[in-house]
Amino acid sequence: MKLAAHYNKASIIISVTVLFISGLIYYFVINRIAREQLDSNLSEEIGEVVDYVNQNQRLPKSVDFDEDLTTFAKTNLAKFDTKYFDTPYQNPREKKVEAGRAVSTLIKCKGENFIVTIVVSREDTEYLIQIIFIITLSLTTVLLTVLIITNRYILNGLWRPFYYILNQVKSFNVSDNKKMDIIEAKADEFRELGEAVSTMSSRVTSDYHGLKTFTENASHEIMTPLAVITSKLDTLIQDETLGPDQFAQITDIYSATNKLSRLNQSLLLLVKIDNNLLHETEKLNVKTIIREKIQQFNELIQNKNIELDYMLDDVDIIANRYLTDVLINNLFSNAIRHNKLHGQIKITLAGNKLLFQNSGDPSPLREATIFTRFHKGRSSDGTGLGLAIMKNICNQRNFDLKYEYLNDLHSFEITF
User: PROSITE patterns of this UniProt entry (predicted)?
Assistant: First the structure.
């Protein structure tokens, strides 16, 4: 839920609560005022009846003046407090029962006590209260509607700079040289936010390009002496005067140098993947790439007498050609390197899934660590980066890579 929606929700809840409570208070206050006005009118009418009795020394007949019902009841009570109360009112004109208000008090006439009761209709008062309530409810509804619409347009205008900055942050690519624009905002907070984000993006871009340059230069500087060492070792290995011990030592050095070279290339590739330097994409046919790799790795497969079975459908993906080549290359290398003599490799390409299965160590790998960098088996002579590179490539293209050990086969499945 967006911030504006949270604000509108809270604003509406608070407004409705306040207006509801205010409406109740307003209703009871109006009702009380109307009741007090009725009681005041009843008090005046009682006073008129008392004056009539005092002047004429007789009771008036039970009359209906202006639809006010007046009754007299003889009583033995010597004292009676005047009381006001609600009671039904029989409307003589419309012949129906309505809500009424009454007053009763004690009067004396010719030495006898009487309780006089005057009942008046509350229908007009109730109707007036209902009209006031409906008008108040209508005004409240209009007020809430105007408040919601006003808040929506005002908040949309106020938050427009924020969403502009947010969209720029979402589309920001550290590998681009494009600088983030600073929007002119009326609110100081959004203006400062825009300036801070722009400054941060410039700093991140600068640091990124600095790191990129350093990595490329460092890799180049490392590769140069490694190439020299490898060249010298090639020359030494061809020297026929070397003894068996010397030849073995030089061979170990040569192997370690090649491993260091591969490690350097793998680390450089990881840096490029992590920083999205290889973001060019095109339509690729996975079946064609796998067939090419089968030809390339055929000699290694035959050296271990590995049985290769494959079933390939035509599957096209949108990806970087170089990274896809590295991904499938690593799948083949992993399946061959960790296989056993007279083992087997099964490749299945169907739908949006690519499955590599190979025999090997008769125990499953630890799924929690196999894709971490520099993780490798005890007998492995690799760099420990192959699976990490595969995982990073899949993450970059939002492919799903998972490992399973089923039917004595190590299985790597990629969902495109």
Answer: HIS_KIN (PS50109)
- What was the pLDDT predicted at 358? 94
Kindly calculate the radius of gyration of the chain based on its CA atoms and give it in whole angstroms. 47
Distance of CA 97 to the CA centre of its chain: 60
Is 344 in a helix, a strand, or coil? strand
Number of other residues whose CB lies within 10 A of the CB of residue 275: 16
Q: How many residues does the chain have?
A: 416
How far, in whole angstroms, is CA 30 from its chain's centroid? Answer: 47
SS (H, E, C) 371-410: CCCCCCCCCCCCCCCHHHHHHHHHHHCCCEEEEEEECCEE
Domains and CATH numbers, the chain: 1-144 (no CATH), 188-273 (1.10.287.130), 280-415 (3.30.565.10)
Residues of the chain with pLDDT under 70: 1, 3-4, 61-68, 175-177, 275-276, 366-369, 372-384
Specify the pLDDT at position 347. 93
Q: Tens digits of per-residue pLDDT, 294-321?
A: 999 999 999 999 999 999 999 999 988 8
